[in-house]
Each structure stands twice: as C-alpha cells, then as structure tokens.
Amino acid sequence: MSIFLDLKKNETTSFVFKRAQSQSEYLAIYNSRLNICQKDFPYILDLTKEFPAKDKFDDYSILFYVTVDNRVVASCRITPYHDEAWEISSNLPDDINLSLDKDKAVQLNRVYIEDRYRNQNLHAFMFYHFSDWVLQNTPYTVYFAVCKLGLVRLYKNIGASSVIDEGFLLKGRADHKYYLVTGEISSFNKLIKKKVLKTSTLK
C-alpha cells in the first residue's frame, strides 16, 4: 500500500505499509527500532544481544512497518496473551489487573516512528492499515496500549478510552508516568478513516 504526503513545500514522499513475514523484514524492523531507541528509549534495549531491540515477545507478535524508499521509518506490533501473561504484565504495578478477554484482545506496543515523520498523521495511517489487517485475518476485536501522557490524546482522538485515569509507574522503566488505554478495533478503524484519512493526504 502506498500513500503520499507533502512533508515540505515541493516535496512528496511515498510511504508503503506492510506486515513483516520474512527474516529480512524482521531484521530491518529491529534495526529501525535500535536507531530510534538509542536516542529516545534506551531502556528497552539489551546491548548484550546480537539484536538489542529484539525481545522474546517478537517471536509470537505480529509486526507491521512503514517504509520510505525501501527503508523502515515506522513500525509497531500487536501481541496476544501468551504463557499466562501480556507483554506488559511484568512491568505493571501490582494493583493493576487487566480484565480483558484473552481470546479477543491484543496489546498494541513497540510503536516507533522516526523523528522527521512524527506529527504527520503517520500514526493514524499505520494504525488504520494494521487494524484493517487484524479485522480481516484474526479473531481479535479489542486492543489496549500502555503509553505516556503525550500519546493519550492521540489514542483518544481515534476512539480509545482510558482504563485508569491516573498515571502510574512501570517496574523497570524510567521514572515517567504511563497510562492505559483501550478500544474496539473496528471502531478504531472506522474512526481513523472518517476523522483522519478523509481530511489528510494520507490514504
């Protein structure tokens, strides 16, 4: 899938959205994550590993990415309940219990976009196309995400609601407050198409 967006006057960029299926695609995503996280999110990296930005959850998650000129500039993944836990379970405070249908819910996580492409509706474009794929190919109907305050508004603008109004600290993470949001994937998909894509150069 390709879309076009004017990033600067007289400049047009072509984006392509895909689901990762090959080893080379996975490696390109891990390398993109590494480049972004070294600056902004170093705490997710394990520099003792061959691929510092890869973790065990990648092995059973579905990964999506966006390229410009065959280079990964954005990626995300959805992670189902696995081995009696969510991806975020070990980091959540003890008093937070995720009461979600484990057969219908997935966690949206590892959402990374290069600096120059942020604030360009690329989040919405990527979320729209991954939700389209999920609705057509999986039984999942609900998503949830754990994010910093700056992204709560973005999620709410595309249909999410807060599970907990107050922010909380995650175990083993930097001292930033995080927030828990959730929503229906079908509503998420339709609302992005209606509110964002129809009024944007993104398609």
How many separate domains? Answer: 1
Mean pLDDT: 89
Q: Give the CA-CA distance, first to last residue.
A: 9 Å
Q: At the fourth CATH level, what is the homologous superfamily? A: Gcn5-related N-acetyltransferase (GNAT)
> Judging from the principal axes of the Cα atoms, what is the shape?
globular
Order of helices and strands: EEHEEEHEHEEH
Strand element count:
8
Characterization of the model:
- The protein is α+β, with helices and mostly antiparallel strands and 203 residues long.
- 27% of the residues lie in helices and 29% in strands.
- Helix 2 crosses helix 4 (185-195).
- The protein is globular.
- The N and C termini lie close together (9 Å).
- This is N-acetyltransferase domain-containing protein.
Give the helices and strands, then pairings.
Blueprint: E1 2-8, E2 11-19, H1 23-40, E3 62-68, E4 71-80, E5 105-113, H2 122-137, E6 142-148, H3 149-157, E7 161-162, E8 178-184, H4 185-195
Parallel strand pairs: 5-6
Antiparallel strand pairs: 1-2, 2-3, 3-4, 4-5, 6-8, 7-8
Characteristic key phrases:
Acyl_CoA_acyltransferase; eight-stranded mixed beta sheet; N-acetyltransferase domain-containing protein; 4 helices; Aminopeptidase; 27% helix; single chain; alpha+beta; 203 residues; globular
